[in-house]
Amino acid sequence: MSNEDYSTLSGVSPLLTDAKVSESLTAWFGEKVTFTHWDYVSDTGKGDAYLSEVIRIRIHGKTDEGIPKHVQVILKSIPKNTSRRLTFRSHDFFKNEIDFYQQCLPALLKFQAKKNVKDPFDKYAKILLAYYDGVSDVIALEDASLEQFGSAVRQEGIDYDHCKLTFKVLAQYHAMSFAMRDQEPLEFDRISKAIKEMYYDESVWDWYQKFWARICGIAIDAVEKEYPNSIYVEKIKEFAVPDRYKNMCAATKDKTHGVISHGDCWTNNFLYKYENNRPIDAKLIDFQLTRCASPVLDISFVIYACTTKEMRDKNYEHLLRYYYEVLSTNINEMGSDANKVYSWDMFMGEIRKYSFFGLAFSFESTPFIILAPEDAVSMEMEGDEKRNIDDFWQIKPFKTKEGRLREANNIVHCVDNGYI
Fold first, then answer.
1. Cα 118 to chain center, whole Å?
2. Residues 269, 369 contacting (CB under 8 angstroms)
3. Please, are residues 67 and 60 in contact by the beta-carbon 8 Å criterion?
4. How far apart are CA 417 and CA 312, in angstroms?
5. pLDDT tens-digit profile of 175-199?
6. What is the CATH number of the domain that holds 355?
7. CB atoms within 10 A of CB 21
8. Does 7 fall in a domain?
9. Are the C-beta atoms of residues 180 and 110 closer than 8 Å to each other?
């Protein structure tokens, strides 16, 4: 970063004019603050971001009285390389997250604020600024590390304490949608249309098709090697086919019990605060894949992207009941009847119907999750042409038994529970 001009952020993104940054600082601090300069703090971990260029910076300003102010943020900017930006459809993802932060989340929080909720949802990374034009898109979010929030080790499955906190935050978040849709259906319909499906839609099948075939092959290979000549081999070969993508598209279109979901519930997108080496709080980050769909699409992805067989064997049913307990409590406190808008039976019906979604999504996430940082896929590209993502995400079958079991045991869990 030695060649950067720290007197302006326009070099990071031309959308970040001094005037716009000053407006954002003024809104953040609740008093007029004029931008003066910025400092580079650090990069984020290798392999922690695939759709953005991400750095940690400190933005400085001063009040009219000359009092210095600063805020430390995580700055996500659209890749400057044209080929990378086009290949990974970066603008689509940036636009979706910005629309979420500017339209969906404020409406949900405004609705919640009118209610007497004992433990309301507030566990998300707050936004300082966001702009998009398709070429220079940028988002700046609070740096939660200043509040001692940090990432779990993604290569390891999260334990019961981590998962319980994650389910609590997701339940609080989902509850706002259920109550708002019940009481203010027109407003909920409006915000649900502000976001769009990024990953599982027929319009992007050509973009995803070759890579889908690759990750299905990796899942099949894992089961064949770890559970040879078993019912699990038969089931995964029946399941990991192109038509399954159509089933996933259908799942994202089902708004029967739709909430404004997170959409990308893998380990990297949860931050935890620790006390005596135990997690005591959690936050959600990265809403680029947010959608309106069943909450089970989020829940099932947590289960199959973030947890291990051992944790599920001991705690799966209890965790589902805990999630629903928090969800129903918050729905009721916001003035709706959880038994009517989303009963336990409705929830479990969708668990049986849509848990396959988290399994199929794990075909992509698990290979990336278990990669050591030094083995992370390089996002460096050359040229300005749109390429196929399979040309770059050339992940291979799992190298280790541990890696194969991480995915193979997801299939075992789904088969044993009758989900596939």
1. 26
2. no
3. no
4. 12
5. 999 999 999 999 999 999 999 999 9
6. 3.90.1200
7. 23
8. no
9. no
Residue 43's CB is within 10 A of a number of other CB atoms, namely 13
pLDDT of 4: 79
With a pLDDT cut of 70, the percent of the chain lying above it is 95
The answer to whether residue 46 is domain-embedded is: no
Question: Is position 359 within any domain?
Answer: yes
User: Alpha helix locations (H) across 227-308?
Assistant: 231-239, 242-253, 296-306
pLDDT given at position 224? 98
Q: Reduce the DSSP state of residue 401 to 3 states and report it.
A: helix
Which residues have CB under 8 Å from 66's CB, separation 6+?
none
C-alpha of 17 from chain center: 29
Total tally of structural domains belonging to the chain: 1
Structure token pair of residue 82: 């044209």
In 10 A of CB 384, how many CB atoms?
11
Residue 108 near residue 176, CB atoms below 8 Å: yes
Which range of residues forms the domain containing residue 334?
A: 150-416
Residues paired with residue 59 on neighbouring β-strands, in sequence order: 38, 71
Residue 355 in tokens: 């848990």
Tokens of 52: 């953005």
- Give CA–CA dist 420/416, Å, rounded: 9
Cα–Cα–Cα angle for 289, 207, 393, rounded to 5 degrees: 80
The alpha-helical segments, DSSP class H, found in 227-337 are 231-239, 242-253, 296-306, 309-333
CA-CA distance, 174 to 335, in Å (whole number)? 15
Q: Does a structural domain hold residue 119?
A: no
